[in-house]
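JOB MANIFEST
job_type = single_chain_structure
chain_count = 1
residues = 125
[input]
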Amino acid sequence: MKRREFVRTMCLGGMATFTLPNVVFGHVRQSGRLVFVLLRGGVDGLAAVVPHGDPGYASLRGAMAFEAPDLAPLDDTFGLAPGLAPLRTFWDAGELAVIHAMAIPFRTRSHFDGQAILETGMDKP
């Protein structure tokens, strides 16, 4: 292909996009955000959102268990680890939800596949 043909083809290709229909986006009544935090390395969920109200928690976690006074309480059962205490503001405002033991239907033993699914919103990596 000669340079002149290449430039002509590229210009025609670019102009072709003007013939496509306009993209229409849905209108949402409220502005909302979903913030999804994926902590690479596998955060220990029981050390992040601590089930201090569970009678077996302290004995099963042993030396890794947090004491209830050290936590930012969410309710009678759960509290945030000290490092996550600033998130309590969002909890109090009804802007934070915690989903325990969440899983996706696609099952492999690959953390990379699982992360790819969560990051892309697709049902397969």
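[summary]
The beta strands are 49-50, 72-73, 79-80.
The first helix runs from residue 3 to 16.
exit_status = 0
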